[in-house]
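User: Can you help me understand a structure? I only have the sequence.
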Amino acid sequence: MKVILQREVEKLGTPGQVVDVADGYARNYLLPRGMAIAASKGAVRHAERLKATHDQRTAKARTEAEAFAAQLGAAPVRIEAQAGEEGRLFGSITAERIADELAARGQQVDRRKIHLEEPIRSTGAHTVTVHLHPEVNATVTVEVAGQ
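Assistant: Let's start by predicting it. Here is the structure, written out as tokens:
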């Protein structure tokens, strides 16, 4: 059965795409939840408009994410923490702590979008990746200073 997607469906497509799916999947899942409509001539024209607006929305989100990534990478984030003589921290710096420091600077970032291989446990400069958009990642320098 050919359907036109109204919303993004994982592993199937984006809004406005005409896809061929099993009849049962369309009747029992996609159509009742409003995720798709049956494909007809008028609906295909509607799908083209839907796809155009979706493309505009994603392009705008990407440009905003790129601008925010440039703003994030402009200045390093300074964090002070208690450290021993050799530069090892008594605790660790987590993504939540980095998100709090960014929020104090007026840059709201969800802690789940900050990617740390493992928590920071030593003083010095560390590079952290922030996932802002599926195609845009920002690189932030975190400078940890011992007290």
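Now, to help you interpret it: The mean pLDDT is 89. Strands lie at 2-5, 18-20, 36-38, 77-81, 88-93, 114-115, 120-122, 124-133, 136-146. Let me know which part you'd like to focus on.
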